[in-house]
Specification:
Blueprint lengths: L40 H13 L3 E5 L2 E2 L7 H7 L3 E2 L1 H5 L5 E4 L16 H15 L5 E3 L5 H8 L2 E7 L10 H8 L2 E5 L22 H13 L2 E3 L5 H10 L5 E5 L13 H9 L3 E4 L16 H15 L4 E3 L8 H7 L6 H5 L21 H10 L4 H19 L2
Helix pairs in contact: 1-13, 8-9
Bound molecules: zinc ion.
Length: about 400
């Protein structure tokens, strides 16, 4: 589990105040008192052994630390300069993760978070910081997760939750691939020229240009993500794609009637084509009627349901967490993150939380392993759901 963290902090090669505006950032570890699944000594040892022998991969997270004061979130996102949570990630037990950058809230180029220049700027600033240290590296191949495990490092798979504004210029997908992007959503909540999003009143499915995008992503070796796509679009992409696809962060609509969750039909179709579903943990998403307070327990209800429905080889975890006050972030960026649309949904009553107890940020990924050990899962099952399934999918989709 020991990762090669030497104390590097983002942009320490530049001069604070002169080259960039510094922010007072949230604590990466222990910001709030988030529970840890209690285990016996023998169980603790088993968790350590599992993490030592297996590859742990998160299907979706934001390994970024936000300002302590939510009043500074807007300015932070407008500058586009992200601080990477090296300390927190080193403690996560993860060998690799899919990095969502500031997807949906990148405002450095104006009010459209999906402008081409804003997305390219984010990737560049992020990769520049990465290249000044050794713990993290940008992953380009499937085997990079294994390499990271062997070397005590962390492989970062760049993951765009939706396509930036590329218009008719599909070559820009090649550009994104060249910059390191290995996974991309077909639509981010709102529909676009390619496909329908989950927030659309009417999902029109894949357009002709959308079919071309699927084909280009298949050829390049860029994994297609349906987390923010509409249901009809999802079924059409699963059908059209020559390679298996992913739903990197969502839950089961059978347990919680939100559009952000996926219906059984989509989950089953995904699994039949050998895809993988990542269970989401972002605040107030993976709730259930019996668990109206969002905690690790309600998240794991979604995991158990999807594992039962799709099979253990088709489920993983994409917690979609970050370092800082995630609930406050949802309030600041409600417009960009289609939370207004979600607020109009007729959901059963639930209790608002100030953080998700047990899975507050990416450093708590090991808590998932602890929960699985405590609930009697075998070493083989745990190995598959904490990384093995994603590793297999990577080998079938990217090179
Ligand atoms: Zn998302």
């Amino acid at each position: 589990m020991r990762k090669k963290y030497t104390g590097y902090s983002s942009y320490s090669y530049l001069e604070a105040g002169r080259d960039y505006k510094p922010f007072r950032l949230a604590r990466q570890l222990g910001r709030v008192e988030s529970s840890i699944v209690p285990l016996s000594k023998a169980e603790e040892e088993r968790v350590e052994e599992i993490l030592e022998k297996n590859i742990a991969i998160s299907f979706h997270d934001h390994g970024i630390v936000f300002p302590e004061d939510p009043g500074e979130f807007l300015e932070y996102s407008r500058r586009g300069r992200m601080w990477i949570a090296y300390e927190g990630l080193a403690a996560s037990g993860l060998d690799a993760y899919f990095e969502g950058l500031m997807d949906g809230i990148a405002l450095s180029d104006g009010p459209d978070p999906w402008s081409w220049s804003s997305v390219v700027r984010q990737i560049g600033l992020f990769a520049s910081d990465i290249d000044h240290q050794d713990l993290l590296f940008i992953a380009r191949r499937a085997e990079d997760a294994v390499k990271a495990h062997r070397e005590g490092r962390i492989a970062v798979y760049l993951h765009l939750e939706g396509p930036p504004r590329i218009g008719l210029d599909l070559d820009r997908v090649d550009v994104l691939y060249g910059l390191g992007a290995r996974c991309m959503g077909i639509a981010y909540s709102r529909g676009n020229e390619f496909a329908g999003g989950l927030a659309d009143k009417k999902d029109n499915g894949l357009t002709d240009l959308g079919y071309e995008l699927v084909d280009r992503m298949n050829k390049l070796g860029m994994l297609i993500d349906l987390a923010h796509a509409g249901d009809k679009t999802s079924l059409e992409v699963i059908e059209a794609s020559r390679r298996p696809v992913a739903i990197t962060h969502a839950g089961a609509r059978a347990l919680w009637p939100s559009r952000r969750m996926k219906p059984d039909e989509v989950i089953q179709a995904l699994a039949e084509k050998n895809g993988v579903f990542g269970v989401e943990a972002s605040p107030h998403t993976t709730l259930t009627k019996d668990n109206p307070r969002h905690t690790l327990e309600s998240i794991m209800k979604h995991f158990e349901y999807i594992a039962e429905l799709a099979g253990i080889r088709h489920v993983a975890f994409g917690p979609d967490t970050l370092f800082g006050d995630h609930v406050a972030l949802h309030k600041v960026f409600a417009g960009e993150l289609s939370i207004h649309a979600a607020a109009k949904e007729n959901l059963p009553p639930y209790r608002e939380v100030s953080f998700v107890d047990g899975l507050e940020n990416p450093s708590q990924f090991t808590n998932i392993v602890r929960w699985l050990v405590k609930h009697g899962y075998s070493d083989q099952e745990i190995s598959l759901v904490i990384g093995g399934n994603i590793e297999r999918l990577l080998r079938e989709t990217i090179i």
